[in-house]
C-alpha cells in the first residue's frame, strides 16, 4: 500500500465510495463459495450440470436458443464477429469508433481474425440511423453497443433500434449486440432483455461490470452459432478445465443485482443532478439514461487532484480514484452506480457535494 | 448423479482412487481462499502485487527473465509459437504428431495464426534425434513436450535434449518447451527446472495437471518475448480483470506439491509393477520415468468394464473412470500419481491387485 499516490490512498480510505458494489477483493468470491457444498464438483471443459444450467438460464433470459459461457467478452465478441464473417464470406464489420474492439483489444480482430473494421459515426456521439442506412461498405455484421460506454453510456431511442434491425435483416447484415451492460439499459427502454435481444442475431453480456462478478461473459444466439462458438472458444484457449470461479459468481451476483438496475438508474439521475449543481462540473449525459455517466470538471489534473484528495478526507465520500484529462484543462471520470451508493447517509452525501461546490467555486 | 454409468458410479464410490490429488470440487478453491484475508484485493488486468510476485517467482524457478500467467496452456503455447514465427518471418513449426496443439485445440494454430505444423516422428514413439537433425523444412520453432503424455509420459535422455538444443541454436531455430508436466520430469533427469529450461528459448508450465490447481499456466522467456506475450494475451481475450482464482490456487498447490514429484515418481514405479504383475496387463512405459504411465489391458471394453466395476465395489480401490479402446480388443487408460496414492493402505492395495489378477485370469 506504500506505493499508492495520496489521491488513490485518500479514495481507498474514504468510507463512502459513490460508485460500484464495493471493493473487488477475496470476499467477493468467498461469499459465493461459502454458499456451496465443498463436495460440489468442478465443471469439466464446459460440461457439467452447473455450467450447463447457468447457460440455459441465460439463454432464456436473453430469449435465444443457446448460450455459452466465456472467460472474457473480448474473446466472446471476436468469435461472434468471426462466425458471422465466415458465414457471409466477407471479412468486414462495422462499429462505433470507441468500441471496445477498437480501443481495448490490441487489434485482436485484425491480428487473429483478419477482420477489417469500418468505423461508423463520430467519437463524441452515437452512430446515427442515417449513417447505417446510407453505409456503402459491404459488411458481414454490424455491432451496436448498448449503452455506448465511452460517451457516458448514451442510448438511441428504441424505435431507432427497431429500424436498424429491420434494415440489417433486409440487407442480410448480421446484427450483434455488445451488451456488456445490457441489464443497465432495460429500465430506460422498459423492455425485457429478451425483447431487446430479439432485434439482434447474437448478443454478449458481461458479469463483472454492472453485475459485479469476478469475471466472465455469456454469448448467446441460435444453435448453429453457439455450436461454432464452442469450437472457437477452444481455439482461443478459453475452454478451461474449470470456469467455476467465474460462472458461479456470475450466477450468484446476477440473482442479487439484475433486478436492481431500475434502482441504480434512479440513483444515477439523482447523483448526476448533485454533480451538475456544482461549479465547473457537468455530466454526460446531463440526465443519465442508465446507471452510468461521465463527469467533466473544468480544472487541470494538478489542480483538481489535491482538491479531491482533501475533500475525500474531510467528508468521507470518495468520488473516484483516477482522473483523465479529456481535453486541455478538463478532467473526466466515469461513475457507475451499484450497491455502494445506497449505503451513503443522505446528509453525508449532501454535505460532500456542498463542500465540492464550495472548493470548486474558490478554485475557479 | 442419476445419469452416471455403473462403471463411473462405482469409481466415484471407491474409497481409494489410485491417481490424482482427490476430487476436483469446491473444496480445492475454498482451501486456498480460507488462507487469505477477505480484504486482499483482486489483481486488475494482469497488474497487482499477487500476480506480479507469483510471475517473478515462476520466472526464477524456470531460470528465465520474465514469466506471465495465462488462463490456459492452449493460449500460452499458440502465442509462444506465433511470436517466434513473427520473429523469424516463417509460418512453420514442428512438433510430435500427438502434441496437444495437434489433437486437442481444434486447429487453433492454423485457424487463428495461420501457422503450419510439421509432424516429426511417429505416433507411437518419441521424436528421434536424427529426425530433428535431418529435417529439411524451414521452421521458426521446434516444440518439445516433456514428458510426451500421449505415449505414457516417455522422455528422451538428457544428452539428447542438449544435442537438440545445440542443433536448434546453430540453425537459428527457436526451441519451445511444452512443460505442462515439467515438475514431473525433474526427478528422472536429476536437474532443476532452470537447468532444463536453459536448453529452451521459451517454456510453458501448467498448474492443474501435476500440481492440482484450478486452472492456469505460466509462459516464460526473455523480456522482449514476454512483453509481446502480454499483447497477444489481450488479443486472445486472456487478459481478464481478475485471474486470482487461478494464480492463487496455482501458487498454493505449487508450494504443497512441487517438491513431492520424486515421491510420486517412486510410487508410479511401484504401482506400474503391480499392474504388470497381473494377467493381460502391461504398462507403457514398462518402468515409468515420471509420475504417469498408461495401462493396457487385453480385453474389449464390454468385458472389462463390468469386471472393474465389480472390483471397485469389492476392494474399495478405484483404478480409472473411463476406458479407451486403443486397439481391437485392448483397453487403455492413463494413471497420474498424486496425493491420493499414499492414502491407500498397503494391504488394501495388495488385495486389490491380487483380485485384479485373479479376475483377469478367469476372463482370458
Oligomer: homodimer
Q: Count the strands of chain A?
A: 13
Q: Per the principal axes of the C-alpha atoms, what is the gross shape of chain A? A: globular
Individual helix count of chain A? 15
Taking all residues together, what is the mean pLDDT of chain A?
Answer: 97
Helix content percent band of chain A:
40-55%
Percent strand of chain A equals: 15-25%
**Biggest pleated sheet of chain A:** 7 strands, mixed
> Biggest chain pair contact, residues each?
A-B, 51 and 51 residues
- List the secondary-structure elements of chain A in sequence, H or E: HEHHEHEHHEHEHEHHEEHHHEEHEEEH
At the fold tier of CATH, the topology name of the largest domain in chain A is Aspartate Aminotransferase, domain 2
| Spatial sequence of strands, sheet with the most strands of chain A | 2-8-7-6-5-3-4
- Low-confidence parts of chain A: none
First CA to last CA of chain A: what distance? 33 Å
Q: Return the domain count of chain A.
A: 2
If classified by CATH, what would the architecture of the largest domain in chain A be?
3-Layer(aba) Sandwich
Q: What is the CATH homology-level superfamily of the largest domain in chain A?
A: Type I PLP-dependent aspartate aminotransferase-like (Major domain)
Counting helices, strands and paired strands, the structural category of chain A is: alpha/beta
Q: Please identify the top-level CATH class of the largest domain in chain A.
A: Alpha Beta
Radius of gyration of chain A: 21 Å
